[in-house]
């Protein structure tokens, strides 16, 4: 299994209790949590330690895949996200223009990994793509893949808004051939962000050899779901909290509605039970009334001095559960297990 498979959509978190047992009946858009593939991003050059701390707290609260921050904030994130199962730490290299030298990118990536980065998003040299500097690009990508090794995710930001479709195919193919884990659409700092058309081009080029991260301009839950449905294993955005809260609200609404549905399903079962046993219960009610009338007649006779004690004892020797059981037996109905605890021992056998 590749790193991108393990940390991508194939490992996405499904809904927990109270919805876990109902997963099979979930609406399609709720069968996985989009927020679990979000890289919660704060790359504003004016960001403060307080904002980065808040970013980490939000990532923990909402279960985002990672926090994406500038390299200088990696140690702070490491302190905030130290526990097992916490979101991963992603940083950016060559950001946002990608025109640093290969050696400087490799050094920065190695330093970030030493500091504690789990994922590296590197901006490609756009000029090299446009002039088809294949050897330079291959050298840079292979060097970065080597630095990241087996455990650190490498994502290459190709800035789709600056490329033609042919150039997108060209660099995506190089990513697949050199072992890059993810092709990332955008920095979010250029003239455009992710588009579904770009995702389609990248996916058709790389197949299953690379995963895809959409970033830039993803502002709503509908946007995030659209990119996830198109095949993006990661989604980079800064409006992650609003997206997560909307998704959680929809989950809760569905859970509440499911509870209501379950209530009515239960009510329907009760109604069906009543209908199935209506004839029996009606017959038992008639029999009880008959016995009551007979008892009153016998008591009147006893009051007149007649010896009817045996008849009275016999008429009183019954209970409703026994009458129901006898009716079912007489009419060939299945035994109602709810009656058994109330029957005489000889009838329970």
Task: Walk me through the structure.
The protein is of the alpha/beta class and 349 residues long. It has 2 domains: 3-256, Alpha-Beta Barrel (TIM Barrel); 267-348. It has helices spanning 3-6, 49-62, 74-80, 102-115, 126-130, 134-148, 165-178, 196-206, 221-229, 240-276, 278-303, 309-316, 320-331, 345-348; strands at residues 38-42, 66-69, 88-93, 119-123, 153-157, 182-184, 211-215, 234-237. It has an 8-stranded parallel beta barrel with strand order 1-2-3-4-5-6-7-8, surrounded by 6 helices. Residues 5-24 and 344-349 have low confidence and may be disordered.
Compact description:
With 349 residues, this protein is α/β, with parallel strands linked by helices. The chain contains 14 helices and eight strands. The chain has two domains: 3-256, TIM Barrel (Alpha-Beta Barrel); 267-348.
Furnish the topology, listing elements before pairings.
Layout: H1 3-6, E1 38-42, H2 49-62, E2 66-69, H3 74-80, E3 88-93, H4 102-115, E4 119-123, H5 126-130, H6 134-148, E5 153-157, H7 165-178, E6 182-184, H8 196-206, E7 211-215, H9 221-229, E8 234-237, H10 240-276, H11 278-303, H12 309-316, H13 320-331, H14 345-348
Parallel strand pairs: 1-2, 1-8, 2-3, 3-4, 4-5, 5-6, 6-7, 7-8
């Amino acid at each position: 299994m590749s790193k991108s498979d393990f940390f991508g959509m194939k490992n996405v978190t499904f809904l927990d209790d109270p919805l876990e047992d109902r997963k099979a009946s979930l609406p399609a858009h709720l069968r996985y949590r989009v927020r679990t593939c979000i890289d919660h991003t704060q790359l504003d050059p004016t960001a403060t330690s307080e904002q980065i701390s808040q970013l980490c707290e939000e990532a923990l609260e909402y279960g985002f895949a990672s926090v994406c921050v500038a390299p200088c904030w990696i140690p702070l994130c490491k302190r905030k996200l130290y526990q097992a199962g916490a979101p991963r730490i992603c940083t950016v290299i060559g950001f946002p223009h990608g025109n640093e030298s290969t050696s400087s990118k490799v050094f920065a990536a190695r330093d970030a990994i030493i500091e504690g980065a789990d994922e590296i998003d590197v901006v490609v040299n756009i000029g090299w793509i446009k002039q088809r500097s294949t050897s330079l690009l291959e050298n840079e990508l292979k060097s970065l893949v080597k630095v990241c090794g087996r455990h650190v995710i490498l994502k290459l930001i190709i800035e789709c808004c600056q490329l033609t479709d042919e150039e997108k195919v060209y660099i995506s193919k190089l990513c697949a051939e050199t072992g890059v884990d993810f092709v990332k659409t955008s920095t979010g700092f250029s003239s455009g962000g992710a588009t579904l058309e770009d995702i389609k081009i990248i996916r058709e080029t790389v197949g299953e050899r690379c995963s895809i991260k959409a970033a830039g301009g993803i502002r709503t839950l509908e946007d995030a779901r659209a990119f996830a449905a198109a095949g993006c294993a990661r989604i980079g955005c800064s409006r992650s909290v609003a997206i997560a809260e909307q998704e959680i609200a929809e989950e809760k609404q569905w859970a509440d509605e499911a509870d209501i549905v379950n209530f009515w399903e239960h009510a329907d079962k009760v109604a069906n039970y009543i209908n199935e046993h209506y004839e029996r219960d009606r017959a038992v009610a008639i029999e009880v009334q008959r016995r009551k009338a007979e008892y009153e007649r016998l008591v009147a006779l006893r009051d007149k001095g007649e010896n009817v004690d045996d008849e009275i004892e016999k008429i009183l020797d019954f209970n409703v559960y026994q009458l129901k059981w006898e009716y079912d037996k007489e009419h060939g109905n299945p035994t109602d297990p709810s009656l058994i605890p109330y029957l005489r021992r000889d009838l329970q056998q």
